[in-house]
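# nightly structure sweep
# worker-07 picked up a monomer target from the shared queue
# config: single-sequence mode, recycle default, output format = structure tokens
# input follows
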Amino acid sequence: MSVPCTRLLLAGALSSVVLLAGCSAESDVISAAQATPYTGNQAMTPALIAQGKQIFRYDTFGDEQKWTDQLRMHEVVSTVDPISALSLGLKVDADALPPGILATADLSSPATTAALLKLNAVVGLKASVDADNHITRLGVTCALCHSTVDDSVAPGIGHRLDGWPNRDLNVGAIVALSPALPADVKAVFNGWGRGRYDPRFNIDGLDTPLVLPPAYGLSRVRNETYTAEGPVAYWNAYVAVTQMGGQGNFSDPRLGIDVHQSPDLVTPRLPALRAYQLSLAAPAPAPGSYDPAAARRGRAVFARDCMGCHIGITGTDNNAGVLHAPSDTGMDGAYAARTATKAYRTTPLRGLARHPPYFHDGSAATLEDVVAHYNQVRKLQLDARQQHDLTEFLKTL
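# output follows
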């Protein structure tokens, strides 16, 4: 049950603002009893999509057991001011803020961070904050890594862009602030850098971080992961249970993982979460971001040299069950070797210009680098103009 807030204290010249809406940590969470049981084939109804939006943005799946009880991140966040949080890539949802409040808020005060959390304004973080503005519980949601903002108010502050990977987020550096981690683990986390995360480090102890992938444009895509272990719901369950630390069930004998926790706070939420993610269309290219004439010429180059793998409306031959050995495409095979498939799928081409860097490991900084890589590895023999034209076409996708 939601407990209404009575007064929010924002450190600054005008320090208090009365809030009429409830904003307890539980106010936006859907209970297991409310969630639709998962069968894998639910219809994409508006109600299910709306439920999924709430889950994507605000549901921790009970992962406070990891972030609070084990890692003590609530203690860490209590000492972090908004300026420092923004520098680590955390984002603030402007739509969750009372009008004009940022003009008087002290963004150098940790008290303001607690106040923002109380408003559910920090994208991907969910907190319980007591009457004295102390953070008592902290968890993370899907939006931490797979949402950003449009910077319409200030850098890092704006309207949410769900499904966009937060390539500014230095999740490793954030987690490395935990007082519960040994120095060698902190060193690994600090080595990942912005927009990168290793979703298997806690499974096998190896370290080959991936760039955070977009969670938009997934409709009709059979497998979500870089290595195609499973579809969207599979990956949601894997991340929620094994990475976020949520309370639920996940089993994959191929990886030697078999986790069962009661009550299961993950599985009942999968259909709605999947529905919302599949509803997120890839963003259109920004106006003026490409040369139309060159893009038209590049379309012909793409049809001749790229459509053998980037096929159909999905842009991937993986829907037909195809996987590629790392050597086929000149990719580093270290991450694939740690997975169930030992290979990479063809990545769907969805809003490409919006989420550099490219490839699973971010080894291509620009689309020009992507084209140059394949021109060399696949021996396409494209001259400079053809490479330029193909790059311009990719910007339209």
